[in-house]
Amino acid sequence: AQEGILRRQSARESSARTYARALPIVPVRARGLTIEGADGRRYLDCLSGAGTLALGHNHPVVLEAIRKVLDSGAPLHVLDLATPVKDAFTTELFRTLPPGLADRARVQFCGPAGTDAVEAAFKLVRAATGRTGMLAFTGAYHGMTAGALEASGGACEVRVTRLPYPQDYRCPYGVGGEHGAELAARWTESVLDDAKSGVPLPAGMILEPVQGEGGVIPAPDGWLRRMREITATRSIPLIADEVQTGVGRTGRFWAVEHSGVVPDVMVLSKAIGGSLPLAVVVYRDDLDVWQPGAHAGTFRGNQLAMAAGTATLAHVRENGLAERAEMLGSRMLTQLGPLIGEFACVGDVRGRGLMIGIEMVDPEAPPAVADGPRPAAPDLATAVQRECLRRGLIVELGGRHAGVVRLLPPLTITDEQTNAVLDRLTDAIEAVAR
Ligand code: PMP
Fold first, then answer.
1. pTM for this entry
2. CA dist., res. 88 & res. 109, Å (int)
3. What is the tens place of the pLDDT at every residue in 244-256?
4. Its Enzyme Commission number (predicted)?
5. Domain carrying residue 409
Protein backbone atom coordinates (compact mmCIF):
# COMPACT_ATOMS: atom_id res chain seq x y z
CA ALA A 1 0.00 0.00 0.00
CA GLN A 2 2.82 2.40 0.91
CA GLU A 3 4.49 2.28 -2.52
CA GLY A 4 1.17 2.74 -4.33
CA ILE A 5 0.16 5.74 -2.22
CA LEU A 6 3.58 7.38 -2.63
CA ARG A 7 3.51 6.82 -6.40
CA ARG A 8 -0.03 8.17 -6.85
CA GLN A 9 0.49 11.23 -4.68
CA SER A 10 3.76 12.18 -6.32
CA ALA A 11 2.06 11.94 -9.72
CA ARG A 12 -1.00 13.97 -8.63
CA GLU A 13 0.34 16.60 -6.28
CA SER A 14 2.23 19.72 -7.32
CA SER A 15 5.95 19.50 -7.74
CA ALA A 16 6.30 21.97 -4.86
CA ARG A 17 5.59 19.18 -2.37
CA THR A 18 8.40 19.55 0.11
CA TYR A 19 8.29 17.23 3.11
CA ALA A 20 6.99 14.34 1.06
CA ARG A 21 9.99 14.56 -1.28
CA ALA A 22 12.54 14.18 1.49
CA LEU A 23 10.51 11.80 3.64
CA PRO A 24 9.04 8.97 1.55
CA ILE A 25 6.85 7.53 4.29
CA VAL A 26 3.08 7.10 4.61
CA PRO A 27 2.06 7.70 8.22
CA VAL A 28 -1.01 5.75 9.24
CA ARG A 29 -0.87 5.91 13.06
CA ALA A 30 0.82 8.19 15.53
CA ARG A 31 1.07 8.68 19.26
CA GLY A 32 3.35 11.03 21.15
CA LEU A 33 6.75 11.12 19.48
CA THR A 34 6.08 8.04 17.38
CA ILE A 35 4.73 7.74 13.87
CA GLU A 36 3.99 4.40 12.23
CA GLY A 37 4.21 4.05 8.46
CA ALA A 38 1.92 2.00 6.22
CA ASP A 39 4.81 -0.45 5.90
CA GLY A 40 4.75 -1.03 9.68
CA ARG A 41 8.01 0.86 10.37
CA ARG A 42 8.08 3.19 13.37
CA TYR A 43 9.76 6.57 13.48
CA LEU A 44 10.61 9.11 16.17
CA ASP A 45 9.08 12.32 14.86
CA CYS A 46 11.17 15.42 15.59
CA LEU A 47 9.45 17.36 12.81
CA SER A 48 6.25 17.59 14.89
CA GLY A 49 4.17 19.14 12.14
CA ALA A 50 6.84 21.83 11.71
CA GLY A 51 6.75 22.58 15.42
CA THR A 52 2.97 22.37 15.82
CA LEU A 53 2.67 19.37 18.10
CA ALA A 54 3.61 20.70 21.54
CA LEU A 55 2.12 17.56 23.12
CA GLY A 56 3.10 15.17 20.33
CA HIS A 57 0.65 13.21 18.23
CA ASN A 58 -2.83 12.37 19.50
CA HIS A 59 -2.25 13.35 23.11
CA PRO A 60 -5.14 12.01 25.26
CA VAL A 61 -6.10 15.47 26.59
CA VAL A 62 -6.31 16.80 23.02
CA LEU A 63 -8.36 13.84 21.74
CA GLU A 64 -10.65 14.09 24.75
CA ALA A 65 -11.24 17.80 24.14
CA ILE A 66 -12.08 17.21 20.47
CA ARG A 67 -14.38 14.29 21.29
CA LYS A 68 -16.19 16.36 23.87
CA VAL A 69 -17.11 18.98 21.27
CA LEU A 70 -18.11 16.33 18.73
CA ASP A 71 -20.31 14.49 21.22
CA SER A 72 -21.93 17.64 22.58
CA GLY A 73 -23.79 18.51 19.41
CA ALA A 74 -22.12 21.94 19.35
CA PRO A 75 -21.87 23.54 15.91
CA LEU A 76 -18.56 22.96 14.15
CA HIS A 77 -18.77 26.09 12.04
CA VAL A 78 -20.41 29.37 13.00
CA LEU A 79 -17.96 31.86 11.44
CA ASP A 80 -16.73 34.10 14.24
CA LEU A 81 -19.79 33.94 16.48
CA ALA A 82 -19.22 33.66 20.21
CA THR A 83 -19.43 30.11 21.57
CA PRO A 84 -18.58 28.47 24.90
CA VAL A 85 -15.70 26.72 23.13
CA LYS A 86 -14.29 30.03 21.94
CA ASP A 87 -14.84 31.60 25.35
CA ALA A 88 -12.82 28.83 27.01
CA PHE A 89 -10.01 29.21 24.46
CA THR A 90 -9.77 32.99 24.84
CA THR A 91 -9.79 32.70 28.62
CA GLU A 92 -6.95 30.16 28.61
CA LEU A 93 -4.98 32.10 25.98
CA PHE A 94 -5.20 35.36 27.94
CA ARG A 95 -4.12 33.52 31.08
CA THR A 96 -0.82 32.60 29.39
CA LEU A 97 0.01 36.01 27.88
CA PRO A 98 3.11 37.87 29.08
CA PRO A 99 2.46 40.29 31.93
CA GLY A 100 2.07 43.75 30.47
CA LEU A 101 -0.04 42.47 27.61
CA ALA A 102 -2.37 40.05 29.41
CA ASP A 103 -4.41 42.74 31.14
CA ARG A 104 -4.81 44.93 28.04
CA ALA A 105 -5.07 42.35 25.29
CA ARG A 106 -7.43 42.08 22.37
CA VAL A 107 -7.53 39.12 20.05
CA GLN A 108 -8.36 38.90 16.36
CA PHE A 109 -9.10 35.38 15.18
CA CYS A 110 -7.58 34.84 11.76
CA GLY A 111 -7.64 31.86 9.70
CA PRO A 112 -6.50 29.34 9.44
CA ALA A 113 -2.69 29.54 9.15
CA GLY A 114 0.19 31.48 10.63
CA THR A 115 0.64 33.45 7.44
CA ASP A 116 -2.96 34.76 7.72
CA ALA A 117 -2.23 36.09 11.18
CA VAL A 118 0.93 37.81 9.91
CA GLU A 119 -1.10 39.54 7.21
CA ALA A 120 -3.68 40.59 9.78
CA ALA A 121 -0.96 42.01 12.03
CA PHE A 122 0.41 44.06 9.13
CA LYS A 123 -3.07 45.37 8.39
CA LEU A 124 -3.63 46.20 12.02
CA VAL A 125 -0.47 48.27 12.51
CA ARG A 126 -0.99 50.02 9.19
CA ALA A 127 -4.47 51.02 10.29
CA ALA A 128 -3.31 51.99 13.76
CA THR A 129 -0.37 54.14 12.63
CA GLY A 130 -1.59 55.38 9.27
CA ARG A 131 1.84 54.41 7.92
CA THR A 132 2.73 51.73 5.39
CA GLY A 133 6.28 50.33 5.50
CA MET A 134 7.36 47.32 7.53
CA LEU A 135 10.69 46.46 9.07
CA ALA A 136 11.74 42.82 8.96
CA PHE A 137 15.02 40.94 9.33
CA THR A 138 17.47 38.98 7.25
CA GLY A 139 16.75 35.26 7.35
CA ALA A 140 13.16 35.80 8.52
CA TYR A 141 10.27 33.48 7.75
CA HIS A 142 6.74 34.74 8.23
CA GLY A 143 4.71 32.77 5.71
CA MET A 144 3.79 32.23 2.10
CA THR A 145 1.05 34.75 1.36
CA ALA A 146 1.94 37.95 -0.43
CA GLY A 147 2.75 40.41 2.35
CA ALA A 148 4.16 37.80 4.68
CA LEU A 149 6.12 36.35 1.81
CA GLU A 150 7.68 39.74 1.13
CA ALA A 151 8.90 39.90 4.72
CA SER A 152 10.41 36.46 4.20
CA GLY A 153 12.35 37.54 1.12
CA GLY A 154 9.67 37.18 -1.58
CA ALA A 155 8.52 39.87 -3.97
CA CYS A 156 5.19 41.70 -3.79
CA GLU A 157 3.60 45.00 -2.95
CA VAL A 158 4.26 45.41 0.78
CA ARG A 159 7.27 47.67 1.19
CA VAL A 160 9.59 45.90 3.58
CA THR A 161 12.97 47.10 4.74
CA ARG A 162 15.16 44.24 5.83
CA LEU A 163 17.62 44.83 8.63
CA PRO A 164 20.35 42.55 9.99
CA TYR A 165 19.22 39.84 12.41
CA PRO A 166 21.99 39.14 14.92
CA GLN A 167 23.74 35.81 14.60
CA ASP A 168 26.66 34.31 16.41
CA TYR A 169 27.85 31.78 13.91
CA ARG A 170 27.72 33.74 10.69
CA CYS A 171 27.83 37.20 12.24
CA PRO A 172 28.26 39.64 9.34
CA TYR A 173 30.53 41.73 11.58
CA GLY A 174 32.67 38.71 12.42
CA VAL A 175 32.27 39.13 16.17
CA GLY A 176 29.02 37.41 17.23
CA GLY A 177 27.65 37.41 20.77
CA GLU A 178 26.20 40.45 22.49
CA HIS A 179 28.75 42.68 20.75
CA GLY A 180 27.68 41.54 17.28
CA ALA A 181 24.05 41.94 18.31
CA GLU A 182 24.72 45.49 19.48
CA LEU A 183 26.32 46.32 16.13
CA ALA A 184 23.22 44.92 14.40
CA ALA A 185 21.02 47.08 16.66
CA ARG A 186 23.06 50.18 15.78
CA TRP A 187 22.64 49.40 12.10
CA THR A 188 18.87 49.36 12.60
CA GLU A 189 19.05 52.67 14.45
CA SER A 190 21.22 54.27 11.81
CA VAL A 191 18.89 53.19 8.99
CA LEU A 192 15.88 54.64 10.82
CA ASP A 193 17.62 57.88 11.75
CA ASP A 194 19.34 58.60 8.44
CA ALA A 195 17.54 61.78 7.39
CA LYS A 196 18.70 61.55 3.78
CA SER A 197 18.51 57.86 2.88
CA GLY A 198 16.83 56.21 5.87
CA VAL A 199 13.40 54.63 5.70
CA PRO A 200 10.29 56.70 6.38
CA LEU A 201 8.74 55.91 9.76
CA PRO A 202 7.29 52.42 9.25
CA ALA A 203 3.97 50.98 10.41
CA GLY A 204 5.67 48.24 12.37
CA MET A 205 8.61 45.94 12.97
CA ILE A 206 8.18 42.16 12.84
CA LEU A 207 10.67 39.72 14.31
CA GLU A 208 11.02 36.12 15.44
CA PRO A 209 12.55 35.81 18.94
CA VAL A 210 14.26 32.67 17.63
CA GLN A 211 14.42 32.31 13.87
CA GLY A 212 13.11 28.87 12.99
CA GLU A 213 13.10 28.37 9.24
CA GLY A 214 16.07 30.74 9.06
CA GLY A 215 18.18 28.05 10.74
CA VAL A 216 17.36 28.06 14.48
CA ILE A 217 18.98 31.35 15.40
CA PRO A 218 18.12 32.61 18.88
CA ALA A 219 18.24 36.39 19.18
CA PRO A 220 20.20 37.55 22.22
CA ASP A 221 17.93 38.94 24.94
CA GLY A 222 19.88 42.21 24.87
CA TRP A 223 19.16 42.68 21.17
CA LEU A 224 15.44 42.07 21.71
CA ARG A 225 15.44 44.69 24.45
CA ARG A 226 17.23 47.09 22.08
CA MET A 227 14.58 46.46 19.41
CA ARG A 228 11.90 47.20 22.02
CA GLU A 229 13.63 50.44 22.96
CA ILE A 230 14.26 51.50 19.33
CA THR A 231 10.62 50.88 18.37
CA ALA A 232 9.12 52.34 21.55
CA THR A 233 11.01 55.63 21.29
CA ARG A 234 9.85 56.04 17.68
CA SER A 235 6.24 54.85 18.22
CA ILE A 236 6.70 51.85 15.96
CA PRO A 237 4.56 48.86 17.01
CA LEU A 238 6.70 45.79 17.65
CA ILE A 239 5.22 42.55 16.32
CA ALA A 240 6.59 39.33 17.80
CA ASP A 241 6.02 36.37 15.48
CA GLU A 242 5.70 33.50 17.95
CA VAL A 243 4.09 31.13 15.47
CA GLN A 244 6.92 28.63 15.93
CA THR A 245 8.46 29.70 19.25
CA GLY A 246 5.24 29.88 21.27
CA VAL A 247 3.58 27.54 23.77
CA GLY A 248 6.65 26.55 25.75
CA ARG A 249 8.92 25.45 22.94
CA THR A 250 11.89 27.68 23.81
CA GLY A 251 11.71 27.21 27.58
CA ARG A 252 9.26 30.01 28.38
CA PHE A 253 5.58 29.99 27.51
CA TRP A 254 6.32 32.72 24.95
CA ALA A 255 9.90 33.21 23.76
CA VAL A 256 9.82 37.00 24.34
CA GLU A 257 9.60 36.25 28.07
CA HIS A 258 13.29 35.28 28.16
CA SER A 259 14.12 38.95 27.58
CA GLY A 260 11.21 40.50 29.46
CA VAL A 261 10.25 42.34 26.28
CA VAL A 262 6.53 43.04 25.95
CA PRO A 263 5.61 43.35 22.27
CA ASP A 264 2.67 45.46 21.10
CA VAL A 265 1.43 42.67 18.87
CA MET A 266 1.91 38.89 18.90
CA VAL A 267 1.25 36.56 16.01
CA LEU A 268 0.33 33.06 17.15
CA SER A 269 -0.49 29.82 15.37
CA LYS A 270 0.85 26.24 15.13
CA ALA A 271 0.74 24.82 18.70
CA ILE A 272 -2.14 27.05 19.85
CA GLY A 273 -4.51 24.85 17.82
CA GLY A 274 -3.31 21.63 19.46
CA SER A 275 -2.67 19.96 16.02
CA LEU A 276 -5.54 21.66 14.19
CA PRO A 277 -5.37 24.91 12.18
CA LEU A 278 -5.80 28.04 14.27
CA ALA A 279 -4.16 31.46 14.11
CA VAL A 280 -4.66 34.67 16.02
CA VAL A 281 -3.22 38.13 16.43
CA VAL A 282 -3.07 39.39 20.00
CA TYR A 283 -2.42 43.08 20.56
CA ARG A 284 -2.66 45.89 23.07
CA ASP A 285 -6.13 47.40 23.29
CA ASP A 286 -5.09 50.91 22.19
CA LEU A 287 -4.17 49.49 18.76
CA ASP A 288 -7.71 48.22 18.29
CA VAL A 289 -8.69 50.70 15.63
CA TRP A 290 -10.39 48.25 13.33
CA GLN A 291 -13.84 49.16 12.05
CA PRO A 292 -16.49 46.42 11.86
CA GLY A 293 -15.66 44.14 8.94
CA ALA A 294 -12.13 45.50 8.54
CA HIS A 295 -10.80 42.00 8.86
CA ALA A 296 -12.72 38.97 7.72
CA GLY A 297 -12.30 35.37 6.65
CA THR A 298 -14.57 32.35 6.56
CA PHE A 299 -12.46 30.11 8.73
CA ARG A 300 -11.84 32.21 11.81
CA GLY A 301 -13.68 30.01 14.20
CA ASN A 302 -12.56 26.42 13.99
CA GLN A 303 -14.31 25.04 17.07
CA LEU A 304 -12.35 21.79 17.15
CA ALA A 305 -9.05 23.66 16.92
CA MET A 306 -10.07 25.98 19.73
CA ALA A 307 -11.00 23.02 21.94
CA ALA A 308 -7.77 21.18 21.11
CA GLY A 309 -5.85 24.42 21.63
CA THR A 310 -7.44 25.13 25.03
CA ALA A 311 -6.46 21.63 26.19
CA THR A 312 -2.91 22.08 24.88
CA LEU A 313 -2.31 25.52 26.41
CA ALA A 314 -3.68 24.35 29.76
CA HIS A 315 -1.65 21.14 29.73
CA VAL A 316 1.61 22.98 28.96
CA ARG A 317 0.89 25.56 31.68
CA GLU A 318 -0.27 23.15 34.37
CA ASN A 319 2.52 20.65 33.83
CA GLY A 320 5.42 23.09 33.57
CA LEU A 321 6.30 21.83 30.10
CA ALA A 322 8.12 25.04 29.19
CA GLU A 323 10.55 24.44 32.05
CA ARG A 324 10.91 20.87 30.88
CA ALA A 325 11.68 22.06 27.35
CA GLU A 326 14.39 24.32 28.74
CA MET A 327 15.95 21.50 30.75
CA LEU A 328 15.84 18.93 27.94
CA GLY A 329 17.02 21.46 25.38
CA SER A 330 20.12 22.36 27.34
CA ARG A 331 20.82 18.67 27.87
CA MET A 332 20.60 18.09 24.12
CA LEU A 333 22.87 21.04 23.36
CA THR A 334 25.42 19.81 25.91
CA GLN A 335 25.48 16.38 24.31
CA LEU A 336 25.48 17.56 20.71
CA GLY A 337 27.96 20.43 21.21
CA PRO A 338 31.10 18.25 21.13
CA LEU A 339 30.17 17.09 17.59
CA ILE A 340 31.64 20.40 16.41
CA GLY A 341 35.16 19.36 17.39
CA GLU A 342 34.63 15.73 16.44
CA PHE A 343 33.45 16.14 12.87
CA ALA A 344 34.77 18.81 10.51
CA CYS A 345 31.39 18.84 8.73
CA VAL A 346 29.54 20.01 11.86
CA GLY A 347 29.95 23.77 11.91
CA ASP A 348 27.60 24.78 14.71
CA VAL A 349 25.14 23.42 17.25
CA ARG A 350 22.65 25.90 18.70
CA GLY A 351 19.15 26.39 19.95
CA ARG A 352 16.87 27.41 22.74
CA GLY A 353 14.66 24.95 24.55
CA LEU A 354 13.41 22.28 22.18
CA MET A 355 14.33 24.19 19.03
CA ILE A 356 17.67 22.72 18.06
CA GLY A 357 19.79 23.31 14.96
CA ILE A 358 22.94 21.65 13.68
CA GLU A 359 24.64 23.51 10.86
CA MET A 360 26.45 21.29 8.39
CA VAL A 361 29.41 22.83 6.58
CA ASP A 362 31.66 21.77 3.73
CA PRO A 363 34.88 20.56 5.36
CA GLU A 364 36.77 20.86 2.06
CA ALA A 365 35.82 24.42 1.21
CA PRO A 366 37.85 27.26 2.72
CA PRO A 367 36.08 29.83 4.91
CA ALA A 368 35.09 33.02 3.11
CA VAL A 369 37.09 35.03 5.66
CA ALA A 370 40.05 33.81 7.69
CA ASP A 371 38.90 32.02 10.87
CA GLY A 372 35.29 32.39 9.73
CA PRO A 373 32.81 29.55 9.25
CA ARG A 374 33.09 27.28 6.23
CA PRO A 375 30.31 27.47 3.63
CA ALA A 376 27.06 25.72 4.52
CA ALA A 377 26.62 22.24 3.06
CA PRO A 378 22.99 21.60 2.03
CA ASP A 379 23.99 18.25 0.50
CA LEU A 380 25.40 17.06 3.82
CA ALA A 381 22.32 18.27 5.71
CA THR A 382 20.13 16.32 3.27
CA ALA A 383 22.38 13.29 3.74
CA VAL A 384 22.00 13.54 7.53
CA GLN A 385 18.22 13.71 7.14
CA ARG A 386 18.31 10.60 4.95
CA GLU A 387 20.56 8.72 7.38
CA CYS A 388 18.28 9.74 10.25
CA LEU A 389 15.26 8.39 8.39
CA ARG A 390 17.09 5.06 7.83
CA ARG A 391 17.54 4.92 11.60
CA GLY A 392 13.88 5.71 12.28
CA LEU A 393 14.26 9.40 13.09
CA ILE A 394 12.45 12.22 11.30
CA VAL A 395 14.21 15.59 11.31
CA GLU A 396 13.63 18.87 9.54
CA LEU A 397 15.97 20.92 7.35
CA GLY A 398 16.26 24.68 7.14
CA GLY A 399 18.54 27.66 7.29
CA ARG A 400 19.33 30.48 4.92
CA HIS A 401 21.65 28.19 2.98
CA ALA A 402 19.59 25.05 3.67
CA GLY A 403 22.48 23.60 5.66
CA VAL A 404 20.79 23.25 9.03
CA VAL A 405 19.37 20.02 10.45
CA ARG A 406 16.52 21.01 12.78
CA LEU A 407 14.85 19.24 15.66
CA LEU A 408 11.46 20.29 17.04
CA PRO A 409 10.43 17.41 19.30
CA PRO A 410 7.22 17.60 21.33
CA LEU A 411 7.61 19.02 24.84
CA THR A 412 6.32 15.68 26.13
CA ILE A 413 9.37 13.76 24.89
CA THR A 414 10.60 11.41 27.65
CA ASP A 415 14.19 11.17 28.91
CA GLU A 416 14.50 7.77 27.28
CA GLN A 417 13.21 9.05 23.95
CA THR A 418 15.58 12.01 24.17
CA ASN A 419 18.47 9.58 24.47
CA ALA A 420 17.21 7.56 21.50
CA VAL A 421 16.95 10.73 19.39
CA LEU A 422 20.48 11.81 20.36
CA ASP A 423 21.90 8.33 19.61
CA ARG A 424 20.27 8.06 16.20
CA LEU A 425 21.19 11.60 15.24
CA THR A 426 24.82 11.18 16.29
CA ASP A 427 25.00 7.89 14.39
CA ALA A 428 23.57 9.53 11.29
CA ILE A 429 26.06 12.40 11.43
CA GLU A 430 28.91 9.95 11.92
CA ALA A 431 27.74 7.96 8.89
CA VAL A 432 27.73 11.12 6.77
CA ALA A 433 31.07 12.36 8.09
CA ARG A 434 32.83 9.08 7.29
N1 PMP B 1 5.89 32.56 11.13
C2 PMP B 1 6.80 31.66 11.54
C3 PMP B 1 7.83 32.09 12.53
C4 PMP B 1 6.78 30.35 11.04
O5 PMP B 1 7.70 29.48 11.45
C6 PMP B 1 5.78 29.99 10.11
C7 PMP B 1 5.68 28.59 9.55
N8 PMP B 1 6.80 27.82 9.59
C9 PMP B 1 4.85 30.96 9.71
C10 PMP B 1 4.93 32.23 10.25
C11 PMP B 1 3.77 30.64 8.73
O12 PMP B 1 2.84 29.78 9.25
P13 PMP B 1 1.92 28.91 8.29
O14 PMP B 1 2.82 27.93 7.59
O15 PMP B 1 0.93 28.24 9.19
O16 PMP B 1 1.27 29.84 7.35
1. 0.97
2. 14
3. 999 999 999 999 9
4. 2.6.1.76
5. 2-59+321-433
